[in-house]
Amino acid sequence: MPARLKLFLPLILFVVLALFLMRGLSLDPKELPSALIDKPFPVFTLPALGRDELLDKEAVTGEVALFNVWATWCVSCRVEHPYLTQLAGQGVAIYGINYKDEDTAALGWLRELGDPYIASIADREGTLGLDLGVYGAPETYLVDADGLVRYRHVGVVDQRVWGTILQPLYQQLQQEKESQ
């Protein structure tokens, strides 16, 4: 290798590395891929929050539904909660996954802020969250009537997220279910 080319080798490596990093930085950090897309919702058996019963996959699948990972220690969950309550009032099926939380605190939260969930799964140890690949709360999964995870949203579900992303998918899955 000529001596002059050796002088430029560090610069060339720097440019290649910089381009690689710039491409990575341009990605939307909310777009976290999920290995579960188009795969079955995880099998689980966990207690229902505030009820004397166990819930499993069969008890919470069979209809198009949102599965919302939430916790009382999550500030963003408090922000999205009123909108989830509004969606539930419009007939959107929503199950809660109370993630690594205390039952007493979670039940108090639902009494104070309202309960938009058909049921809340008490994921005290985070085992279901681990199987889902949860990074933190809030996260929301759209699951079809066959129990397949169709979409994952990391962050707050608000009017913009619902109207531009989740609602069109939710309605499409509802139509597919009705046409079967």
UniProtKB/TrEMBL annotation:
Pfam families: Redoxin. It comes from the Bacteria. GO terms for biological process: cytochrome complex assembly. Signal peptide: none annotated. GO terms for cellular component: outer membrane-bounded periplasmic space; plasma membrane. Residues 35-175 form the Thioredoxin domain. It is found in: Cell inner membrane. GO terms for molecular function: disulfide oxidoreductase activity. InterPro entries: Periplasmic_diS_OxRdtase_DsbE (IPR004799), Redoxin (IPR013740), Thioredoxin-like_sf (IPR036249), Thioredoxin_domain (IPR013766), Thioredoxin_ResA/DsbE_sf (IPR050553). The keyword Disulfide bond applies. It is a single-pass membrane protein. Keywords: Cytochrome c-type biogenesis, Disulfide bond, Redox-active center. PROSITE patterns: THIOREDOXIN_2 (PS51352). Belongs to the thioredoxin family. DsbE subfamily. This is DsbE family thiol:disulfide interchange protein. It comes from Seongchinamella unica.
